[in-house]
Amino acid sequence: MKGFGEKQNKKVKAIKIDLIDLPNLKRQALNYLNNGKWKKAENIYIQCLREGVTDEEIYFSLSTLYKSTGEFDKAIKYLKKVLEISSDNYNLYFNLGLLFLKQNNLNEAIDSYNKGLEIDPNNIFALLNLANIYEENSDLESAIKIVEKCILLYGNDPKVVFAYGNILQSQGKYDESLEQYKKVLSIDQNFLEAKVNIGNILHKQGRIDESLKLFKDLIKDKGSNPKFEQHLSHLLLLKGNYNEGLEKYESRLKVNKKNYSIPINLEMLENREFSKNQKLLVLSEQGLGDTIQFSRYLIPLRNQGIDIVFCVQEKLKELIKVSNLANKVYSNDYMPEMLNAKWIPLLSIPRILGVSPNNPILNKPYIKPPEKKIYEWGEFLKINKKPIVGINWQGNPETEKSHLKGRSLNLDLFKEIAYKDINLISLQKGFGTEQIDKSSFKNKFHKHQNEITQNWDFIDNASIIFNCDLVITNDTVVAHLAGAMGKETWLLLQKIPDWRWGMNSQKSFWYPDVRIFRQEELNNWNKVFKKVTLELSSLLLNYDKKIY
Q: What is the C-alpha to C-alpha distance for residues 281 and 307, in angstroms, rounded to an integer?
């Protein structure tokens, strides 16, 4: 069965082409293109090519068409054909670079921009785009060199000053970055991106009320904007204002349109008007941690007689299924055809239910792997009577480029913990595991650590965590998985955390068994680990078979 939004591979319908009247045909196709009649324009262009027309204009128009429809491979293919004819056109290289960026193909994008700059070395558009690519790729040295060149060429051009501010922000030089953004606004007071970035930095500095006011003023001044409202929602939720925050959080659906394919034949559930035996299609969105955290709210819906079909990330499908959270569970690359049903994105359910710190709805364990798996891993991990402590230290680096920067830490910080009288297990998967071999306490890890590390099945991962006496982790999927199982968990949290953890409390209303150890100073983990080590020492003094 085909998923919603899946493109049908249909052959282009043959049409009669009078090559004598080629200019008129091109005008007709261009008119179709400009009016969004993609298929009609494509029919003319493709048939022209079949008739043997090798025309630069047709190739470029096809590239534009496929860019508009999101078919970037085809767009690149035809733009390259244009370049075979006009290899000295620097704008074509810059356009090609933009297409590679759409595919997140940074190396090809860099190469395309550099080829264009060989022809037009002082093009400000290309230089700043290239600097931005280097910045996002954490190559700040290359980004700075380009921006410095732009400063020499263009001085106080607001776009250049803005780019410099972005690099300073990436370096964590927030005060200096703020100065540059304010300088941008002194040159051009309508430079909206600078205002937004000021709001972001105020947020990162913990100046929440100032950031909140800025985004409220932006919305008041510029009108409703999904990106502004998404920023505002994070700030409201961080402050504990869930009523308004969750309403504003719906803006993410307009900002992050690619999180899922919208089932166009179904009506979205907008309010809490449920009917018994109603069918509801729930679509997961965002990361694995989000799915684990918010899948709890399928339970109160099922308790009201709602028949729930849940589409989740493939990695979590079996764990969600065995935890009996939904009537049916599918991978989110497969969307079942449903009749007489409604649908809802997973992270919209808390708004529907009226979730807040004072009304958590469900704050007891709801994820549990099979008893057989728990027993098997328990026997495998049991090597002595010492407590088993599972640790995790790094999140997804790609995620941290856009947000949650600073949530990860270095394995070496766990050194004192590793030398305690414990069985140490790394719960890290993929990124970050390379630090184990380089650590000074490699020999302190569980003798079966390699088998544990190499296992990527979430049922097994959950079973390992279930057998831990304590989990110590940064803000990543491990924290959510351990919390969802009711495992005693110590969460190591950056000073300005993700909105779901709030700003001050040592406890989480989401997970009663999670204790939060917060940074007191930005990026200072040393004080956090001093507290954790002391607490662990105290805990071990009273340990008798099990920590809790």
A: 9
**CATH T-level topology, domain 371-541:** Rossmann fold (3.40.50)
Q: How far is CA 147 from CA 17, 100, 243, 251, 409, in A?
A: 50, 22, 43, 33, 30
Sole residue written with tokens 């947020």? 203
Give ∠ CA 104-398-162 in degrees, rounded to 5: 75
Task: Give the H/E segment covering residue 289.
Answer: helix 288-294
Query: CB under 8 Å to 142, separation ≥6 — which residues?
Result: 131, 134
**pLDDT tens digits, 402-440:** 556 788 999 999 999 999 999 999 999 988 999 999 999
| Whether the domain at 267-353 and the domain at 371-541 fall into the same CATH topology | yes
pLDDT of residue 45: 85
Is the model's pLDDT at 31 over the cut of 50? Answer: yes
Specify the pLDDT at position 548.
41
Output the pLDDT for position 434.
Answer: 93
- How far is 116 from 312, CA to CA, in rounded Å? 42
Q: With both helix axes pointing from N to C terminus, report the angle between 38-50 and 22-34 in degrees, rounded to the nearest 10.
A: 150
CATH tag, 267-353 = 3.40.50
Cβ-Cβ contacts under 8 Å for 411 (sequence gap 6 or more): 393, 432, 435, 436, 439
Domain ranges of the chain: 267-353, 371-541
Query: Does the reported pTM lie above 0.70?
Result: yes
CB atoms within 10 A of CB 461: 22
pLDDT tens, residue by residue, 118-129:
999 999 999 999
Question: What residue type is assigned to position 126 of the chain?
Answer: A
Nearest CA among 236, 198, 203 for reference residue 497: 203
> What confidence tier does 236 reach under pLDDT thresholds 50, 70, 90?
very high
